[in-house]
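User: I'm putting together a small comparison set for a docking exercise, and I want a reference complex before I start. The sequence is below, and the ligand is spermidine. Could you produce the 3D structure with the ligand included, as structure tokens?
Assistant: Of course. I'll restate your input first, then give the structure tokens for the complex.
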Amino acid sequence: MSRSLLFVMLVAVVLVAVACAPPPAPAPAPAQPEQPAAAEQPPAAPEVQPASEIVLYNWSEYIDPEIYTQFKELTGIDVLEDNFSSNEEMLAKLQGGASGYALIVPSDYTVAIMIEEGMLHKLDHDNIPNLVNLSERFRNVPYDPGNVYCVPYQWGTTGIGYDSAVIDAPTSWAAIFEPDPNTPWYGRTTMLDDPRESFAAALTYLGYDINTTDEKQLQEAKEVLIRAKPGLSGYDSDTFEDLVASGENVMAHGWNGDFLVAQEDNENVAYVVPEEGGVVWVDNICIPATATPEQKLAAEMFINYLLEPEVGAQLSEYNYYASPNAAAEEILGEEFLGDPTIYPPPEVLEKLQYIEPVGEMESLYQRLWDEVKSS
Ligand code: SPD
């Protein structure tokens, strides 16, 4: 058993013992020298106990439900799950006052926005000793150096998934942005229902920076997105991969791991990053500032559990995303680490860009996206 797993178990055992122990008999009051009232010490704050139930607000199908069962067995804490489909949906819900979530999973640029807006608790690293398992490069991510607020959860890329029994790999974003009624994917393609991701695809196709704040470039990208619409069957961030696996669709803009999961249903599902490039992202597990001290402690215990080498490996084997956990990668082995769809080779990596916060222009991206969808 690893020392860190032992730590989690010891914490759990101590907490259960403390919770179940009968109240101690009052100790006889020791004789106290008389003190002036102003010098009296305030009573020590009662020690925080972890909440018995917490809610994780996550992307759909992103965690093996078995992990909740294992964690409950170890600590007695129930983890419930609610889902969102985009960073913007999650952010708007929390900004609108939703509380009750102890854990959320925002992507890189959204972590930066949430830190800026004071929406995240700082993590107590003493409760997360398994942080040592993170790969060096995930300990100092630019949006949260030193993992002060969040712990990287999984990372991946955005490109195009397709049915390789019907078509060859699409080499260019033109497959989506120059719709042709004579192609088998016309009307059988989805794009992500996600303002920054969909604009990133259009801006990449146009050869622009995906974080541009140039309004002319954004208007051009909007026109490209509108031009694509006749070839689309819809915008979808939750079932895009299933629709390709079932044969209903032929192509989808989406996230690499989701297409790999869909391969379990249909081995012809494949994924490619087009020649112009795509997005690389890191999702992170964080504690919203609205979490109570009890929820926060339980949340930190859960984060620590996710960082166990075996649990990190279990997470990647379930969702087929790359792990930021070096100790988990040792368990995942060469076949997983050598899969170019999960761990892009250097020639693909160099064509990928991170979505970054764009400050006040974020609302322009959202407004233009609303215009695309309603056009
Ligand atoms: N099914 C889980 C997919 C998680 C994707 N998160 C990526 C967001 C990148 N903007």
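Residues 55 and 101 are 5 Å apart (CA to CA). Residues 3-20 form the longest helix (18 residues).
User: Thanks, that's exactly what I needed.
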